[in-house]
Structures are given as C-alpha cells and as structure tokens.
Amino acid sequence: MTASSAGAAAAMGRPRLQTNPRVDTDRRPRQAEPVIGPAAFNDPRLLAARRAVLSASRVTRAVQADLQTSGVITKDDRSPVTVADYAAQAVVAHVLQQDLGSVRLVGEERADALRLPENSGLLQRTVKQAQRVWPGAEAESLMRAIDVGAAEPDPEGFWTLDPVDGTKGFLRNQHYAVSLAYIEAGVPVLAALACPNFEVDINYALDRPGRGVLCLAARGQGAWQSALHDGAVMHRMPVASRRQDLVRTCESVEAGHSNHDAHAKILRQAGLSASAVRLDSQAKYAVVARDQADVYLRLPSHRGYVEKIWDHAAGELVAQEAGLVVSDFKGRALDYSHGRRLEKNRGIIVAAAHHHSRLIDAIRRLGYS
Ligand code: AMP
Ligand code: MG
Question: Can you tell me which atom of ligand 1 is nearest the CA of 281?
C-alpha cells in the first residue's frame, strides 16, 4: 500500500492491520507496512487478544456447524456447557501465553468435569476441536490451558474471558459471543469480542447466520470491527447520533435472564416507542455499537442475581468506544473491582446519552432502581 492509498484508506475509516497473515498477498508489498489506525493496534496485548479470539472463533464455528456430535454436559448451576466452551477457553489461554508469556486470566470454565472418567469422550472431542487451531494440543495440555483461566482478579490488571457467551443461543444455532477483555483498576481497557454469526454489513438480517464479525476496542481510541474471514480490513464503529423518539431495543432471548415486561414498562414510561430484537449473549452490546439497535436493557429476572464480569467487560468497552453510555439502573458505572461479579451494580442500560438520561429517569419513577 502506498502512503497516499494508505492515507485514503485511513480517511475512509478502514485501516489495515499489518499483523494478519492474510495481509501478505500478491497485491501487497511484503516489507513491513506502517500500522494505520489507532496506536492501540501497536499494543501487543490487543494483537494477542485479537489472534486468540479469532482462533477460538474458528473452533466455535466448526462445533456449532456440527452440534449433534459435539455433546453437552450440565454444570452445577444447570447451565449447558459444550465442547466449544472448553476448546475456546483452552485456545484463548494458549494463544495469550504464546504471545505474551504468563497471563492472569479469569475465565468462566474449569477443567474439573473433563477430568472425570465418565467425560473422557467429551475430553477427546474437545482436544480434537482445539487441534483445528492448536495442532499440538493433547488432553493434559488442553486441561492445563483451561485452568490457566482459574486465576483471581487483580487490581494491577487481568484478562477476563467468556469463551462462549450465550451458550443457549449457541445450542439453538443462533447468536453467541467469544468475549475477552483486559481490565485495569476495575475498568475494561482492551476488548476483543467475536460475534461469530454476524455480518459486517449491518443491513444483513440478524435472524440469518452470517460469516462472523470481530469487534476490537481500546479505551479512548475507538471501536473497530472486521469480518472474521478477513481480519485485515478494520471498519470504525459509528459514533452515531441516534434517533430521538422511535428506538430499536434489544434484550435477552431468555426471559429467565432479564425481565421483558419491566423493559417494556420502562420504555413506555420514558416515552420511547420501541421495537425489540432478542438475541443471546453480549453480542447485544455490539448490536447497539453497530447501530442496529439504540438501547440494550437488562434487568435480571431474579432479584438476587449478580452479573458476571466476563458477561459484560468486552461488550461494555465496545459500546462505550462507539459513543454509547453504559451504566447500571441507578446510572452508576459498572465496577469491575469486586472480584468475579459486578457486586455493586444492578441492571444494565446501554444507550446514547439523550436516551440514557430519559431511561434512568423512567427507571427511578417506576421504582426499579
Ligand atoms: P443473555 O444471552 O444475554 O441472556 O446472557 C447470557 C448470560 O446470562 C450467561 O452467560 C449467564 O452468565 C448469564 N445468566 C445466567 N443466569 C442468569 C440469570 N438468572 N439472570 C441474568 N443472567 C444470567
Ligand atoms: Mg456468559
């Protein structure tokens, strides 16, 4: 790419990353190119996160394409966990360690169940899937990699991972996310969020599986997306001026995860007439960031439920860097400095500032805060 065409690409908001192997095509010079785009793309942590999530998504897509043979077991909290959850966590931990050395990773999964004799078949299938992108993976090294994710949060900084967020959507052959964020002093600062069934084109219907999208964000530097199949071309996410009255909302598919009736009441109270799209996982943050919806509301259906950090960290940063406000139902910032859960927060709102303040007001008047 010449300096002038590079400038043109940057001006169009589509910087190219130099580190993707696909960049080395005949159309491009083989010598090192200047990295175009935010300085964050020079950060080895963001590049490692990107490679980790791209690799893991290749595995999750392959498993979802063949769910019949992959197998599901039920965790203690009765949520389903699949070969994909285990393989993706192992792959992310392995790639982060390869690229960055030792890492502090707070992941959702543990290898304990895979060590049980009755799950040896599941273990074998998990190893086989991980080998798609980690050819040297074996049962022991894979379980060790999964358990790298057993670390505790540290105020100095740590990674948090949901290898398959929205497992229920994944099992319904619908949307899910592979979500990795780096948190410093209780705040997400880097995010790599794959939505493996999205398309970069936001006009592509959400009810049809697409070829996959990777969202990257760095605090203060913007949010970017690329196709999973061509990670070299990055598109800046819109910092949109959203419409004022008719809002498109999104919420969980699972009524057990968030209170659909309360969301409808809040929107009515705020005077916002709304059409809702339901999809699983923190892909909802990306839906708002990509301007496919204006508002994401999440009031847990069960009063005592406390959100997990890995269900929000990457999504929140992507949405904020696309210009949206993210808070809990009292308007407080999400606080990642209290271990593995958002102990100090209840309810989530993602919206442009003018909608956000109306929603907070409506929530207070209805007594949901
Ligand atoms: P979603 O797909 O947006 O409904 O969210 C999926 C996430 O919801 C999972 O990763 C779980 O960690 C989380 N979850 C599980 N049970 C609940 C619950 N009762 N209320 C809210 N979230 C939950
Ligand atoms: Mg999750």
Answer: 2
The protein residue with its alpha carbon nearest to ligand 1, atom 22, reads: 257
Taking the mean position of all CA atoms in its chain, how far away is CA 335? 18
Is the CB of residue 293 less than 8 Å from the CB of residue 283?
no
Is residue 173 pLDDT above 80, yes or no?
yes
Confidence of residue 39 (pLDDT cuts 50, 70, 90): confident
pLDDT tens-digit series, residues 241-272:
666 667 899 999 999 999 999 999 999 999 99
Q: What is the DSSP-derived secondary structure letter of residue 158?
A: E
Pocket of ligand 1 (CB under 6 A): 165-166, 252, 254, 256-257, 280-281, 300-302, 305, 308, 311
Q: Which amino acid is at 152?
A: E
In terms of Cα–Cα distance, which of 206, 264, 247 is closest to 352? 247
Least confident of 18-27, 143-152, 193-202, 245-254: 18-27
Q: Determine if the pTM surpasses 0.85.
A: yes
Is 162 assigned a catalytic role? no
CA of 165 to the centre of ligand 2 (A): 4
Q: How far is the CA of 309 from the centre of ligand 2 (A)?
A: 9
CB burial class (10 A; 0-12, 13-18, 19+) of residue 308?
A: middle
State the average pLDDT over residues 87-106.
98
**Minimum-distance ligand 1 atom for the alpha carbon of 256:** 19
